[in-house]
Amino acid sequence: MNIAVIIVAGGRGSRMGSELPKQFMLLEGRPVLMHTIQRFAESLPGAQLIVVLPADQFESWSALCHQYRFDLSHEICAGGETRFASVYNGLAHVGAVDYVAVHDGARPLVSRATIMRAVECAVSHGSGVPVVEPCDSFRLVEMSSDRRPEQRPIEVRSVLDCETQGDDQSRNEEFHGPQEFSEMRSRILDRSLLRAVQTPQVFQTRLLREAYAQPYRVEFTDDASVVEAAGYAIALCKGERRNLKITTPDDMVLAEALLKVHQNEGR
User: Which pLDDT band holds residue 167 (cuts at 50, 70, 90)?
Assistant: First the structure.
């Protein structure tokens, strides 16, 4: 398959409560990022693998590769201040390929089936974005019209944003205190119309390059939103619940359990 994979790994570990970036934390005895790279190396043999890291993490990653004897071929490039900038930088390293997949480095459990569904969808439709149906119920909350002037509005993000926002600071919006909850109004959302977006998101190279020629906008929460803003339709394909993004310590515990299940299934 004539394809490149951009693996965006810009985590700093703040929400993990650790000084160690989450992509370097150990999952079943190896750094998370190594699991992610291996999934793509095995699923897409011969693909160009590009890992986007903060420049100040290059040395640490090199040391880890040496320590764990990790020799799968991949390129490293420096990330930017936003996920948009990191993908943009990664695209500059993409060679003469027909398709580009963009994946979160903190999704180490992505299956070959999900990867191939996204690729096949992109071959057929120009884009392939894996999604899953939500299990929870959702409510859209709004501030009451009589809130005190000194209180700032609370920004509400959908389930889609939570899955795709990346490591931008804007994800850190939270509710702070019972007085804010008491002034909220809410309404139920029809969850049958919602989908949680995952990665890898796969696109025709020409299309993705054109989309990333746009100036950055705050609503660019993932690659699909960038491509859609360039005027292209987004094709969805089936994702998997086990393809979780590691963000918190609880996610790491769940990832360990899921990885053990996967290993047992392979025996």
Answer: very low
